[in-house]
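Our preliminary data section would be incomplete without showing what the modeling component actually yields. Below, a chain of 375 amino acids is followed by its predicted structure, encoded as C-alpha cells that our downstream tools consume directly.
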Amino acid sequence: MLKVGILGGGQLGRMLLQSAANYPVETFVLENDENCPSAHLCHHFTKGDIRSFDDVYRFGKGLDAIAIEIESVNEQALEKLEAEGVAIYPRPAALRTIKNKIAQKEYYRERNIPSPDFVITRNLDEVKQYSVFLPAVHKLAEGGYDGRGVQVIRSENELSRAFAAPSVLEKMVDIHKEIAQIVAVDQRGGIVMYPPVEMVFDQELNLLDYQLSPAGITDDIKARVENIALDAVKGLRSAGVFAVELFLDREQRIYVNEMAPRVHNSGHHTIEGNYSSQFDMLWRIILGYPLGNPSGILPAALVNLLGEPGQEGDADYQGLPEALQRSNVFIHLYGKRQTKPGRKMGHVTILGKDKETLVHDAHALKQIIKIRAKK
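Predicted structure:
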C-alpha cells in the first residue's frame, strides 16, 4: 500500500482524502491546525508548519509520494525529499515556477505563452514610476490566495492600494469571459484535459461567484484555450493536476492569467459532473494507474458557499433542507467550524441540461443557503 502525504489540510485535502477511500493508499496530512477540514479523514495526522523546512522534511521521510493542496509550502524540503526518492506532485521545480508570480510571468514570456503585459515592482516608489501602465492589477509575488494579495489600480489616485513588496504590475485586460482549463499529466507524460469552464466572479470579494461547465465558447476558442493551456503545462515537465486560468477579451484574444499546480476550485464540479473527478484523477496519477475519463456527464454549475457579510463565529448553515429538495443539487460542506465574511465554507454543484436553467438555479441557491454565525 502506497504511503502518500498531503501538505495542507484544507478543503482541497478533504476532498482528495474522500476520493482516496477508493484506492489502496495510506494517507498522511501535515497541517498546523488539528481541527482542520482534513484532520479526521486521513490515516495519520501530523501537526506542523507546511512552510517549515524541518517540519516538511521530517513529515516526508518514509513516504512514497507527496501532494500539495496549497502553494505556500517549503519547496527546499521537497527538493531534498525528491532527491532521496520521494515522488512529489507537482515536482518542486514546477512548484517553484508557479508559486512566485514574478517567476510565473517570466516563464510565460520565455515560452511565448500569451499573457497580459507586465512590469516587476519591488516597492511603492517603483509602482509610482509606472503610472503610465495604469489601469493595471497589482499582484504580490508570493503569499496571495483566494483574492488576497491582488489589488486593482485604475488611476494614480488609487496608487495607495499598491503593495510595498516584490510584485507584478499587470496591464488590465478588457475581459469578456474568464475560463479555467484543468490538465492532468501522468508519470509517463500522458495527458487528458477536462472541458473548459466559465467563471463568473464576485467583483467586491474577488472570489468565484459561480461557474459553468462546459464554458459557453465556440469550438475555435475552445481549441485555442486547450492549446495554450497544454503549452503552459508541458513546459513544467511534471506529472500532476494543473489548473490554467485564462482571459478571453472582447476582441477574442486569449491570455493566461495564472496557473495552479494542484487540484483547484474550478474543478470541484467534476465530483458529480464528470466521469473521473479531478481528485480521482490525481490518485490515478500518483498510483501509476491509467488516466480517467475527464468528459462531462451532464452540464454543471458550481456555487461557492461563503460566510455572510458581518457574520463571524460558530457556523450556522441555513437553508440546506430547502436546497436538498432539488434533485439536481449536491452540497459539499468543508467542515470549518468558524465562519467569517467571504470565507469559503463549502460549495454546491448543480447538474442540468442547459445553461439558462443552471444559471437560474445557481442564483436561486445563493439566496436559499446562508452561512451565518450562531446566536
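The domain at 2-89 is CATH 3.40.50.20 (Rossmann fold). Residues 219-234 form the longest helix (16 residues). Preliminary results of this kind motivate Aim 1 of the renewal.
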